[in-house]
Amino acid sequence: SDHMENICGYLMKYTNLVTGWQYRFFVLNNDAGLLEYFVNEQSRHLKPRGTLQLAGAVISPSDEDSHTFTVNAASGEQYKLRATDAKERQHWVSRLQICTQHHTEAIGKNNPPLKSRSFSLASQGSANSPGVQRRPSQNAVSFFNVGHHRLPTGKRVPIMQPDHLVDVREMMSQAEGQQRDLIRSIECLPVSGHLTSLDQDLLMLKATSMATMNCLNDCFHILQLQHASQQKGSLPAGTTISWLEPKISLANNFKNGAAQNFPAEINKPASVREEQSIAEPCQLTREPEEINPDEELEDICDDKEDDLGAVEEQRSVILHLLSQLKLGMDLTRVVLPTFILEKRSLLEMYADFMSHPDLFIAITNGTTPEERMIRFVEYYLTSFHEGRKGAIAKKPYNPIIGETFHCSWRIPKTEVAADAGSNYSAHSPSEQVILSRDLEGQTELDYYTVKFVAEQVSHHPPVSGFYAECVERKMCVSAHVWTKSKFLGMSIGVTMVGEGLLSLLEHGEEYTFSLPCAYARSILTVPWVELGGKVNINCAKTGYSASINFHTKPFYGGKLHRVTGEVKQNTTNTVVCRVQGEWNSMLEFTYSNGETKNVDLTKLSVTRKRVRPLEKQGPFESRRLWQHVTESLRDGDIDKATEHKRALEERQRNEERLRAETETPWCTKYFLKEGDGWAYHKPLWKTAPAVQTQQTDTN
């Protein structure tokens, strides 16, 4: 073809959340059917940094803007690319599509197709279809007449050749289309009558069909690995094949449901009327409030969370929830059932990540940049067990815009590790509580104070900012997090979009970090939670970085809640520390000198936070704001908790509507918008006396 031309040029390639977009030199090799990229044009004669086979690939312009597009290879690998303008994007997309089609068809011509299984729907949603006029005695599943042809018995299925995977992908594309038709057929049914869109069997079919398509994509990935192993030899011992995230691009085929509106209720309790009658937040004082740590008392709340266990009793609630959801749907505007809630706000959950403040303070005591980076990684990994309350499948309250949370910790100076050879506190949790209570009689010189503040700065999208500092040790940490939640069929995924920054003023060092994703699995049976994804920690000044992988449950083999990572010096590419274990139980650190250290997170001492009594808290502080919901959950009264929660959500919607009508912008209290992120209004590095910056230590 005249259009089969080799093209090359610079495009931006998305790497990850931390690194972001980077310019790379791309080359389309039409003869080989390859898309290759290099660091720059000058390195074109070297080995490519990356290569994608275009046969069987899908080239998709992005809806997010006119410059971005994706290349999804048959192997499951994806490149997210951005051109300089819409015209250049169209040029690349059209050339890539022509090359892809040419090589895909060539494979099909050279390899006869397999005898494929066929999937059919008796009804495609037509109003005149006999299926729509089914008798009441028919069951919901038979209405859709989903079936398949069995392979003849006694015949051995031949080993599939690698090129035949193109046929498999084509079959899967057909199945995906039929699954979309199935869901449309369900959603087009009336809400009343013999067969409704809320029929429990149909809701179950809807959810399981979504999960089945995800499973088929995972199985397709396994087939590719098997063919690779046949060509290169068998897989090494101990290899695990992990579940992939959904590759089905169904999100664009459905629109998110609107927020659920609740009718005004009659005879509401006084506490509900109080929740709805609080004045408009911007009419309250939005001036930052200085919290005196001496007014805070040691937290005596001990809200142990019981796991959800089997959810049979709440099955109808979950099935009704599924009726509102679409695969890939953003759950920001979806009202989730009350029985899955923890008895704390998301803002307080961020505070609970600081439950080992002695390890936090010990970071700056490291004598070298290497020690300080390792200490930060150790603190970072020990924070999730208490912050996430283990792997309990419950979620905290979604904060109301303007909601704040304040607390502090007091840590005896004798409890803070002074050098790299010091171990963690040997005190048991019960002994630590006694020590914490003994602090009341100590003088200020005997302990360090860590202060914490968090604020919900945005409602749509939901963004939280939090900040903690220890003035005595001249260190502070701040972060902004956008919680993006999506429905994945039989699970829910939450992506923590944002970035954190740890500042060690004594050393003039800044450490950037991100947070892993969280997944609620098996939401129809026995729900459980796991963390997943790769996070990075970087210190530009010292050249040290850490890469940490939170591994999701493998398809077969492997362990739950596994985490691995390494700390290295970027200049020499030398690994100085490795870590492995489970983020909610046991971690093992191995250092460059050969020494190892095991940390049992279940026995690690927890310092109780200090909070002001409810009567001294402002109306938008988390515990006072959610007190009636929390009390109802403690009493096991789900209906009453739902009523109080609904009142808060209804008030927030009314306030948001009023601001939109009056074009009144929301004014935050403690955090200021800076570019795409949020920053604390008075960080320590602005207020602390000038610190003599030390030169970077060397090993």
From TrEMBL:
GO terms for biological process: lipid transport. Keywords: Acetylation, Endosome, Golgi apparatus, Lipid transport, Lipid-binding, Membrane, Phosphoprotein, Transport. It is found in: Golgi apparatus, trans-Golgi network membrane; Late endosome membrane. Pfam families: Oxysterol_BP, PH. The keyword Protease does not apply. InterPro entries: OSBP_sf, Oxysterol-bd, Oxysterol-bd_CS, PH-like_dom_sf, PH_domain. Gene3D superfamilies: 1.10.287.2720, 2.40.160.120, 6.10.140.1150, Pleckstrin-homology domain (PH domain)/Phosphotyrosine-binding domain (PTB). Residues 117-136 have a biased composition (Polar residues). It catalyses: a 1,2-diacyl-sn-glycero-3-phospho-(1D-myo-inositol 4-phosphate)(out) + a 1,2-diacyl-sn-glycero-3-phospho-L-serine(in) = a 1,2-diacyl-sn-glycero-3-phospho-(1D-myo-inositol 4-phosphate)(in) + a 1,2-diacyl-sn-glycero-3-phospho-L-serine(out). Residues 104-136, 637-658 are annotated as: Disordered. CDD domains: PH_ORP10_ORP11 (cd13291). Residues 4-101 form the PH domain. One of its GO terms (molecular function) is sterol binding. GO terms for cellular component: cytosol; Golgi apparatus; late endosome membrane. Belongs to the OSBP family. Heterodimer with OSBPL9. Plays a role in regulating ADIPOQ and FABP4 levels in differentiating adipocytes and is also involved in regulation of adipocyte triglyceride storage. Weakly binds 25-hydroxycholesterol. Interacts with OSBPL9 to function as lipid transfer proteins. This is Oxysterol-binding protein. It comes from Aegotheles bennettii. The gene is Osbpl11.
